[in-house]
Design brief:
Layout (H helix, E strand, L loop, with lengths): L2 H31 L6 H20 L9 H32 L2 H4 L7 H39 L4
Length: about 160
């Protein structure tokens, strides 16, 4: 393995460690305040997808997939079902809050603390959820552009 690939893999591992730390920081206030968080894995999915796809959109030439055409085609095609999955999860969260309100989630907290944690959860779920739902099709467009550039211009 040449030095360039070693650096790209090391950088990729570093980014995954940073992503894991961001997930932990985002979920820590929720874990402190709530007994049960039924949208925990959905929340983790939103954060990981947004950070990873945004990183690939802007830093593609510094990743190990930059010159792998078949992998870029597969990833581009996977963005369509991923987009629908993300939108479905956002809708599931919004439907839960609309139908059952916040009572099952934050009802055990003192009344003074409830608005703050509800606002935090609402804001971060919508930010990361909508951001990831936008990043997936944008990533597909970036993959298509990269495939075209690699084939026609020899760049990423």
């Amino acid at each position: 393995m040449n030095r360039s690939n070693t650096l790209k893999i090391t950088l990729e591992l570093l980014w995954w460690v940073i992503t894991a730390m961001v997930v932990w920081v985002v979920l820590q206030p929720i874990h402190k305040a709530m007994y049960v968080w039924p949208f925990e894995w959905t929340n983790v999915l939103f954060v990981v997808v947004l950070l990873t796809l945004t990183r690939y959109i802007f830093l593609l030439k510094h990743t190990f997939i930059s010159n792998q055409q078949v992998l870029k085609i597969v990833l581009m095609l996977l963005m369509f079902p991923l987009t629908f999955l993300l939108v479905e999860r956002i809708n599931e969260f919004l439907g839960f809050i609309e139908e059952q309100t916040w009572e099952p989630l934050t009802g055990h907290l003192p009344p003074a603390q409830q608005p703050a944690i509800e606002e935090y959860i609402w804001g971060e779920m919508l930010f990361f959820g909508v951001g990831s739902a936008i990043a997936a099709p944008a990533f597909a467009v970036r993959m298509m552009l990269s495939i075209w550039r690699t084939r026609n211009r020899g760049t990423v």
